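If you are new to this repository, start here. Below is one unmodified record pulled from the training split, so you can see the exact layout before writing a loader.
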Amino acid sequence: VDQRTQDFAKVRSEAIRQTKAALDAAGIDMPSPSYKVTLERAGAPAAALEAQRAAGVTEEPPAHEVDVDRYLQDQIADDRRRAEEPDLLETPDPSGTPDR
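And here is the target side for that same chain:
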């Protein structure tokens, strides 16, 4: 994953989601990656879901965006532009003047 263009955590999450969806579509039962409460009740919702699966009807959710979130970089750059004091985190050039 090129982390300059994609957010690693978002890509990982999307990969897990798509893998789980592919396994579900293939009829392979996998445990959920999170804890959940299961309320078991017989009724129409479960029957309707089984009918959809039997008919091969699946709803594919849209892929999530995985671009890098540049919010913090933009905020830091804005703060540096407005700062009246020198930025002590910037590396000075050999002439001794800080980068700007």
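Two things worth knowing about this chain: Residues 8-82 form one domain. The chain has a mean pLDDT of 78.
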